[in-house]
């Protein structure tokens, strides 16, 4: 699941991003300063996190392509509107806060959004539950690392689409793909060992010269 973090304080942004990534989320950071803001990515997001100290002005643009995404505002007591959240899917967390409280708000808002977006995927007996962070095939639970889960969720969200190694590298690891490395191939191989190898029907396929696709053939 991908989160957009709008935060102007560098250390806070790094702290929150690191904690979210360690909990299996993909995170893009949008910075704002006196010269405006620069979105790190134009992806679609499952949740928007915004610092009210200066990032509230970025919300109209961020929401333009993420209209159904819930929003968590990080605020001090003077910046919370009277009456609290203005609409469904909005929540306010007062600073300072513990990361455990922040993560609880994140999970609560994502659970709220389950009725508005597809959070469960199923292909050929392979099931992925983004809310419970669980994967199984033919009823057998798959033991995936956070990055393997993120990689599988990308493939299943894009079922039937051929994804290039560069796209996978950017979406899962947020790094530029080096064409002379087999970095992505190694991780795909590890994922296949859990998702495909124990089962007769293979779902993750290599498209020579292009990348990978997950589909039932």
Give a written overview of the molecule.
- The radius of gyration is 19 Å and the shape is globular.
- The chain has 217 residues and is an alpha/beta fold.
- It has two domains: 2-115, Response regulator (Rossmann fold), CATH 3.40.50; 120-214, Winged helix-like DNA-binding domain superfamily/Winged helix DNA-binding domain (Arc Repressor Mutant, subunit A), CATH 1.10.10.10.
- Helix 4 (146-157) crosses helix 5 (165-173).
- The two termini are 26 Å apart.
- The protein has helices spanning 10-22, 59-64, 99-112, 146-157, 165-173, 183-195; strands spanning 2-6, 26-33, 36-38, 47-51, 71-75, 90-94, 120-123, 126-129, 134-137, 140-141, 204-207, 211-214.
- Strands 3-2-1-4-5-6 form a six-stranded mixed beta sheet. Strands 7-8-9-10 form a four-stranded antiparallel beta sheet, with helices on one face. Strands 11-12 form a two-stranded antiparallel ribbon.
- The longest helix has 14 residues, at 99-112.
- It has six helices and twelve strands.
Assembly type: single chain
CATH superfamily of the largest domain: Response regulator
Q: Roughly how many Å apart are the termini?
A: 26 Å
Number of helices: 6
Major sheet details? 6 strands, mixed
Which residues form runs of ≥5 with pLDDT under 50?
34-41
Count of domain modules: 2
Q: Largest beta sheet: what is the strand line-up?
A: 3-2-1-4-5-6
Give the topology string: H per helix, E per strand.
Answer: EHEEEHEEHEEEEHHHEE
CATH class of the largest domain: Alpha Beta
Using DSSP, what is the number of strands?
A: 12
The residue-averaged pLDDT reads 82
Overall structural class, as computed from helix and strand content, comes to: alpha/beta
State the helical fraction.
25-40%
CATH architecture group name of the largest domain: 3-Layer(aba) Sandwich
Q: What is the third-level CATH name, the topology of the largest domain?
A: Rossmann fold
Cα-atom radius of gyration? 19 Å
Overall geometry: globular
Q: Beta-strand level of the residues, as a percent range?
A: 15-25%
């Amino acid at each position: 699941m991908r989160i957009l973090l709008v935060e102007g304080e560098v250390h806070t942004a790094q702290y929150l991003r690191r904690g979210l990534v360690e909990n299996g989320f993909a995170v893009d950071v949008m910075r704002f300063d006196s010269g405006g803001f620069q979105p790190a990515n134009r992806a679609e997001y499952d949740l928007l996190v915004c610092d009210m100290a200066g990032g509230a002005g970025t919300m109209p643009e961020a929401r333009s392509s993420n209209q159904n995404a819930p929003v968590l505002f990080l605020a001090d007591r003077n910046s919370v509107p009277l009456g609290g959240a203005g609409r469904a899917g909005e929540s306010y967390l007062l600073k300072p806060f513990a990361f455990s409280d922040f993560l609880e708000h994140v999970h609560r808002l994502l659970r709220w959004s389950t009725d508005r977006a597809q959070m469960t995927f199923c292909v050929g007996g392979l099931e992925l539950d983004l809310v419970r962070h669980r994967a199984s095939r033919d009823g057998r639970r798959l033991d995936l690392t956070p990055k393997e889960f993120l990689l599988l969720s990308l493939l299943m969200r894009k079922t039937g689409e051929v994804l290039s190694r560069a796209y996978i590298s950017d979406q899962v690891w947020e790094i530029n793909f080096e064409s002379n490395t087999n970095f992505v191939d190694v991780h795909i191989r590890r994922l296949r060992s859990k998702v495909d190898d124990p089962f007769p029907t293979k779902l993750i396929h290599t498209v020579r010269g292009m990348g990978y696709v997950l589909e039932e053939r």
